[in-house]
Amino acid sequence: MSSPLSLEQKRRRAFGAVRILFGLIWLINTCLQFNPAYVAHFLGSFNADWASGQPDWVMAYGHWMAMLVQQIGPQAVAYATVGLDAILAISLLTGLGLPFLAWVGALYNLWLWSTVGGFGGPYTQGATDPGTAIIYALCFLYVIWSRSWEGLSLSQSPHKPLYAPAMHTARILFGLLWAFDAFWKWQPYFLHNAVTYLQQALPGEPAWIAAYISLVIAIINLVGPVLFGYVAAIMESIIAFFLLIGRGLRWIIPVGIAYSFGVWTTAEGWGAPYLPGSTANKGDVLGTTNIYIIAFLFLAAWVYFTPRALRRGAGEA
């Protein structure tokens, strides 16, 4: 009879399972990029950097980067991104090539965030978050700092103990991301127009998703759209606060997962519809707040399968 798994072995398997789930989402994103429109419209997606309201330095950077891609060849760069995405998906699913490829994934997503993502901007009236690719970059850091290739993996890398301050850093970065989101939720425009973000998700959705979102909108209108805006701002502020201080994580994690799932299935319309040639939400990725769930799951594997004394060494309770 095999001996029961130790807490550390359970943690390694939990990290490995979350890594594989992240890999499955990344694989779906890669498949979405096989649409010919992705390559055809790739260079045009750089206009996010010079959209109205962007700072001059972002516009200058975007034009410079677009010129560089033009010189290399837009189709060549686009096909290279699809190839890299496929390699990253295989690496996440198997654990092979990590942590090197995870560092590549983090830097690659920061590049996407700064170009086709427009640094998440422009941060003007109606902004709600810093964009899509930034949370993908954070999850790649979670892949690295959790040593997730040591569980449920084909990798033969030797086991090494987790570096607690790294997990502490990942949690704080996640908390800062939530704090940034919360800041924009407290802006008057969002508070008084929060329900419109759900209404904007309706066009093009399959009938069952549209019916679900419409039901949620009807409930919100019944209780009060402005009240809904304040609840969203309060919820995101609470999640950010506890992530930043490292307290109450055992209960804030399921709250954060439930809240993120609610946003993904309503304002993001389950990530659909997937518009050919588009990037980020409703384009070549499955969504944004579903990746927030992945980050929460990495954090859950750390919190629920790590002795309290070790987590305290990372500034958590």
Write structural notes for this entry.
- With 317 residues, the protein is mainly alpha-helical.
- The chain has 13 helices and no strands.
- The chain is globular and about 55 Å long.
Which radius of gyration do the C-alpha atoms yield? 20 Å
The SS-based structural class is mainly alpha
Helix amount:
55-70%
Instruction: List low-confidence stretches.
Output: none
Query: Can you write the helix and strand succession as a string?
Result: HHHHHHHHHHHHH
Let me know the number of strands.
0
Shape: globular
As a percent range, the share of strand residues is under 5%
Task: Give the overall pLDDT as a whole number.
Answer: 93
Quaternary organisation of the protein chains: single chain
In DSSP terms (H or I, runs of 4 or more residues), the helix count works out at 13
CA(first)-CA(last) distance = 35 Å
Biggest sheet architecture: none
Describe the structure concisely for a colleague.
The protein is mostly helical. The protein has helices spanning 7-32, 36-40, 56-72, 74-94, 100-114, 133-145, 164-185, 188-199, 207-223, 225-245, 249-265, 289-304, 308-312.
